[in-house]
């Protein structure tokens, strides 16, 4: 059994059930410029990729195609909407805090996300989870996003970790962890994280 010295958690879809909320907020602001975003499209094409890449794709596919930065201009409005929803009701599983408490001190832990640190940090604080993580690697921390290995390599370097376990839900995120050369545990939802991570660590 591999012995790990850190756990690197993706955020959206792993620690927090945020994807439906991200999608609803983007759909609301994109509708103001006549672009339709459905959950069907978002869940298939947009989960795990950077917001800029998502908007580039939507700009090309919109009818007629438009410059992607027309859509990027909506980012501040989307972010305000998202933060208002997230900090009033942080989307964390009730079992998560106890689970992290049990790992704290035994493993170094980090959050590694394609979302912005300025989005993630207030949510962790609102959910009283921030003290469990030594660092947060977000969109502004790296030049190349998942599926490139950079976010996970940076997190491991910050923690001084040689054998991290990466916990991921998206294809891009799993590819990123593997490209970094780390063990990857794939999960389908935040609810199954405590049991699956516990199993993998043989706790
Ligand atoms: Mg994810």
Q: What would you note in describing this structure?
A:
- α1 crosses α5 (75-88) and α5 runs parallel beside α7 (117-126).
- This protein has 203 residues and is α/β, with parallel strands linked by helices.
- The mean pLDDT is 94.
- The protein is built from ten helices and five strands; from the N terminus they run βααααααβαβαβαβα.
- 47% of the residues lie in helices and 10% in strands.
- It is globular, with a radius of gyration of 17 Å.
- The chain has two domains: 6-17 and 92-200, Rossmann fold (3-Layer(aba) Sandwich), CATH 3.40.50.1000; 19-88, DNA polymerase, domain 1.
- Residues 10, 12-14, 48, 169-170, 173 line the site of magnesium ion.
Name the descriptors:
single chain, 203 residues, Rossmann fold, DNA polymerase, domain 1, five-stranded parallel β-sheet, 47% helix
SSE inventory with pairings:
Layout (H helix, E strand, L loop, with lengths): L5 E4 L9 H13 L7 H8 L4 H11 L6 H5 L2 H14 L7 H8 L4 E5 L4 H10 L8 E3 L12 H10 L4 E5 L2 H9 L3 E4 L6 H8 L3
Parallel strand pairs: 1-2, 1-4, 2-3, 4-5
Helix pairs in contact: 1-5, 5-7
The structure holds magnesium ion.
The site of magnesium ion has 8 residues, from loops.
CATH superfamily annotation of the largest domain = HAD superfamily/HAD-like
SS-based class: alpha/beta
The CATH class assignment of the largest domain is Alpha Beta
Oligomeric nature of the chains: single chain
State the low-pLDDT regions, or none. Answer: none
């Amino acid at each position: 059994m591999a012995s790990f010295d850190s756990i690197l958690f993706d955020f959206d879809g792993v620690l927090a059930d945020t994807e439906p909320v991200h999608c609803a907020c983007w759909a609301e602001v994109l509708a103001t410029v006549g672009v339709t975003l459905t959950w069907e499209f978002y869940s298939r094409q947009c989960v795990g990729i950077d917001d800029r890449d998502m908007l580039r794709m939507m700009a090309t596919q919109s009818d007629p195609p438009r410059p992607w930065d027309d859509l990027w201009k909506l980012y501040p409005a989307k972010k305000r909407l998202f933060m208002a929803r997230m900090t009033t009701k942080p989307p964390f599983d009730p079992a998560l805090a106890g689970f992290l408490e049990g790992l704290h001190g035994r493993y170094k832990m980090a959050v590694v996300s394609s979302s912005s640190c300025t989005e993630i940090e207030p949510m962790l604080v609102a959910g009283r989870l921030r003290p469990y993580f030594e660092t947060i690697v977000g969109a502004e921390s790296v030049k190349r996003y998942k599926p490139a290995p950079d976010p996970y390599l940076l997190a491991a370097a910050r923690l001084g970790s040689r054998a991290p376990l990466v916990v991921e839900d998206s294809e891009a995120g799993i590819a990123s962890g593997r490209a970094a050369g780390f063990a990857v545990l794939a999960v389908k939802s935040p609810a199954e994280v405590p049991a699956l991570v516990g199993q993998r660590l043989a706790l």
